[in-house]
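Extended Data, record tRNA (guanine-N(1)-)-methyltransferase
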Amino acid sequence: MRIDVVTIFPEYLEPLNVSLVGKARVRGTLDVRVHDLREWTHDRHNTVDDTPYGGGPGMVMKPDVWGEALDAVAASGEGEGAPALVVPTPSGRSFTQELAVELAAKPWLVFAPARYEGIDRRVIDDYATRWEVHEVSIGDYVLAGGEAAVLVITEAVARLLPGVLGNAESHRDDSFAPGAMADLLEGPVYTKPPVWRERGIPEVLLSGHHGRIARWRRDEAFRRTAAHRPDLIERCDPAAFDKHDRALLAELGWEPGPDGRFGRAAGAVEE
């Protein structure tokens, strides 16, 4: 996969040189190129923003600068087809594991992280006529710029690529990973030593009984999800629950509604 990032703060993207992403770059699994937006300015102050039409606070990033930058990046990939443009923005589609999987299937991503009040809307509208455009939000909050979101999205996407993780099976049991437990958070994990500060580990994990261990992990996933993200259980397809799941949910204070989906029972106390 190729990833290009156009930004006014190239140094912000230095973390892409370390850990799994950095190793993937060294191996050639991931081709990451960071570009300074100011290289496409034509005044002595390297101006990338201006006042907003209609008034209001803040500044807006100029369309002509962004247009030249994105055109140049696209031209550098002649013969590779059009990239998918990813624009981090609080007003975009929520970034989920499902979207990470979708983006991981693209051969080429170009990120356009904004600063100030954002990028002139005409840039997104223009490129949407010939590129696939994804406006993406990593949460219901506002940052000083989109570079932090680029780091989040890139790491989530990169670890899904073949050859990036040391164990190709690692991401299959992640919270939100596609599969039978896609709507549950991952349960607790343990490693050696077996006793630390007088705290042991659940005996079932030492049993060697794979069926019991799998059941315990699923139960713990339900417990954690019910405690921290009850909304995930509420939107789960009840057809994915077995008899044991339903009994555990009842124990945790959940009951099926008229549509079959589970919600907290009346009078249930949150753990």
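Summary. Residues 210-228 form the longest helix (19 residues).
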